[in-house]
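quick q for whoever's on today - can somebody do inverse folding on this one?? i tried earlier but teh output was garbage lol. tokens:
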């Protein structure tokens, strides 16, 4: 998925972000409304009316998706599960909870709130449609309201499909969790169902394509692939969180760490450290205090002729939150960071003293050992 997000505004203190991929769907939806849906159903209206109807409908569809997500977020917040942000992307919205709900009943309430909002919107738009069509309002208003009632109904129903991580899958997981008391097993089953739902979408999509419904079919295929990928990723995340629960960086770091000083020349760094130890990065320290990190990347743009005169301190990445882990930090959080920042190693500090080093491979190995032990 594309990484760039734009922050729009806040509601209830929750930031609303748009992923760039969302513009693709917004464009597609507006285009199909303006040039296909409204002209087919209301051929007597002018082109300008079709445009206004299409844009207003697309915009209100966007508002409907935000309200659906706010439904989840509001209930989560009132149950003590803070929301990081709401992101709108290619396939709709995602409320990013900062943690999993602590019990199945809370999870059920959070999961059901979104579709509930969509169904309420469906009824509101339908009531407005009914009122407007009785009262002879300007042409185009009633069809837009009818369309919005219809898509909110679809939005609520689609999200209730019982494949994790869709809302319906969350409900299924919460139900299994309540019955069995085992969140991990419940997530495993719900995400397997999510994967199967994904396959059904892909197969149905291809059938539609072969029957000539090209855009609708491809759309289903895309959603199917997305569901399969999301189901797998969500399960992996739960496995990591539950396996590494309570495991800190200090528990799995390597305590013996080779550091270099800021005054060391790059030539000596290469000869006496990179070649000797075969590590691809070294913490830079000043009498045990972390000053920065030097990796082979910093040397790539440095001509060999300058290796003698350049010091480690001149080219290192200076100390920052990004390049270190704290000894008390949770291992699962650090794993998320190293994957996101694509770095292999982090010096571990206690205060400003270097006490060890943690590697992505080390965390993955610990993950494997702990998960073998818990079976
Ligand atoms: Zn939802």
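ok took a stab at it. sequence:
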């Amino acid at each position: 998925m594309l990484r760039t997000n734009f922050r729009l505004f806040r509601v209830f203190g929750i930031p609303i972000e748009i992923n760039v991929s969302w513009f693709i769907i917004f464009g597609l939806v507006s285009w199909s409304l303006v040039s296909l849906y409204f002209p087919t159903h209301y051929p007597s209206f002018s082109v300008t009316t079709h445009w206004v109807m299409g844009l207003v409908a697309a915009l209100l569809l966007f508002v409907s998706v935000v309200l659906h997500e706010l439904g989840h977020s509001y209930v989560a917040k009132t149950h003590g599960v803070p929301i990081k942000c709401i992101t709108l992307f290619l396939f709709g919205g995602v409320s990013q909870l900062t943690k999993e709900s602590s019990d199945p009943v809370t999870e059920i309430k959070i999961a059901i709130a979104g579709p509930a909002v969509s169904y309420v919107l469906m009824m509101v738009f339908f009531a407005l449609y009914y009122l407007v069509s009785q009262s002879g309002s300007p042409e185009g208003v009633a069809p837009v309201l009818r369309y919005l009632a219809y898509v909110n109904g679809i939005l609520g129903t689609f999200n209730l499909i019982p494949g994790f991580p869709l809302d319906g899958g969350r409900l299924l997981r919460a139900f299994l969790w309540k019955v069995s008391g085992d969140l991990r097993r419940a997530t495993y089953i719900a995400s397997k169902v999510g994967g199967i739902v994904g396959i059904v979408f892909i197969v149905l999509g291809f059938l539609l394509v072969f029957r000539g419904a090209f855009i609708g079919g491809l759309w289903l295929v895309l959603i199917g692939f997305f569901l399969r990928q999301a189901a797998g990723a969500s399960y992996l995340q739960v496995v990591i969180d539950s396996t590494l629960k309570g495991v800190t960086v200090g528990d799995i770091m390597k305590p013996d760490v080779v550091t270099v000083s800021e005054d060391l020349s790059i030539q000596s760094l290469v000869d006496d450290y990179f070649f000797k130890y075969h590590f691809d990065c070294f913490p830079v320290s000043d009498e045990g205090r972390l000053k920065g990190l030097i990796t082979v990347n910093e040397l790539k743009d440095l001509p060999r002729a300058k290796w003698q005169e350049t010091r480690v301190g001149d080219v290192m990445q200076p100390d920052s939150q990004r390049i270190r882990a704290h000894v008390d930090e949770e291992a699962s959080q650090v794993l998320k960071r190293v994957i996101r920042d694509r770095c292999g190693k982090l010096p571990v500090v206690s205060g400003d003293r270097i006490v060890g080093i943690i590697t992505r491979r080390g965390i993955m190995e610990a993950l494997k050992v702990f998960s073998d032990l818990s079976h």
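fwiw Residues 68, 72, 114, 159, 167 surround zinc ion (CB under 6 Å). also The longest helix spans residues 47-78. so keep that in mind when u check it
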